[in-house]
Amino acid sequence: MLRYVTTNPGKVREAREYLGDAVSQLDFDYTEIQAADLAPIAARGAREAYRHAEEPVLVDDAGLFVRGFDGFPGPYSAYAEDTLGVEAVRRLVDAELDDRRAEFRCVLAYCDGEPFAATPDPVDRDDRVTAAATGAERDDQETEPLPVKLFEGVVRGEIVEARGDGGFGYDPIFEYDGATLAEMDAAEKNAISHRGRALEKFGEWFVERQ
Ligand SMILES: O=c1[nH]c(=O)c2ncn([C@@H]3O[C@H](COP(=O)(O)OP(=O)(O)OP(=O)(O)O)[C@@H](O)[C@H]3O)c2[nH]1
């Protein structure tokens, strides 16, 4: 069984839509380090979660990166949602920016305690992610680093007035191709979303690994 590590049921719903019953939620609040990128946060979280669960884990770290704010709230998206709220983030964009472009990013970090093949993975073409995926970056939890494999997905859109009541988080204020993510059902959102794209890469790779 693959454990999808998150406290957010919305993420699990979307993962199960894609991966089916092969995944179940592990409601584990791993330590989120401070970093400008999602990848090191997810990688460290996957190592901590694997040590905790002792079974294969998939950590999902996501964020909304507003172009005109140099990527803010980015890795701090959950904090901004909890403190300011989604509507205040939208008003901030409205008040401060002419450029409403933003992107959602999702990094999935997989760890099962086993090393990965050293050959370049044809599915995972993002150089930065592939470099991090070797597990060569410092593991601050133990002297022997646990290998972690990373998969990234991105969707580019715009911040708009809230519409729709599906999804979760910033979905109502993020528009892609004329519709907000909250106006899409789970399958429609997965087809274009940051999480869906990362899940697709992971799914193709995971089938080969089994
Ligand atoms: O509109 C959205 N559509 C999405 O598809 C989406 N995915 C994540 N988010 C938001 O971005 C932050 C992630 O923070 P995050 O990765 O730390 O997750 P989290 O704190 O919700 O749970 P956990 O997985 O850490 O336990 C939180 O504010 C989430 O609401 C999304 N918002």
SSE order and pairing:
Blueprint: E1 2-5, H1 9-19, E2 23-26, H2 38-53, E3 57-66, H3 77-83, H4 86-96, E4 101-111, H5 127-133, E5 149-159, E6 174-176, E7 179-180, H6 186-192, H7 194-209
Parallel strand pairs: 1-2, 1-3
Antiparallel strand pairs: 3-4, 4-5, 5-6, 6-7
The ligand O=c1[nH]c(=O)c2ncn([C@@H]3O[C@H](COP(=O)(O)OP(=O)(O)OP(=O)(O)O)[C@@H](O)[C@H]3O)c2[nH]1 binds next to β3 and α3.
Number of domains: 1
Q: Give the overall pLDDT as a whole number.
A: 89
What is the strand arrangement across the widest sheet? 2-1-3-4-5-6-7
Low-confidence stretches: 122-137
Tally the helices.
Answer: 7
CATH topology: Maf protein
GO molecular function: hydrolase activity
Keywords: Hydrolase
Protein name: Non-canonical purine NTP pyrophosphatase
EC number: 3.6.1.-
Describe the fold and architecture.
- It is a single chain.
- This protein is of the alpha/beta class.
- It has a single domain (2-209), classed as Maf protein (Alpha-Beta Complex).
- 36% of the residues lie in helices and 21% in strands.
- The protein contains 7 helices and 7 strands.
- A 7-stranded mixed β-sheet has the order 2-1-3-4-5-6-7, sandwiched between helices.
- Helix 1 crosses helix 7 and helix 6 packs across helix 7.
- Residues 122-137 have low confidence and may be disordered.
- The ligand O=c1[nH]c(=O)c2ncn([C@@H]3O[C@H](COP(=O)(O)OP(=O)(O)OP(=O)(O)O)[C@@H](O)[C@H]3O)c2[nH]1 binds at residues 6-8, 11, 60-64, 77-78, 81, 104, 167-171, 174, 181, 193, 195.
- Keywords: Hydrolase.
- This is Non-canonical purine NTP pyrophosphatase.
- It is an enzyme of class 3 (hydrolase).
- It comes from Halobaculum halobium.
- Belongs to the HAM1 NTPase family.
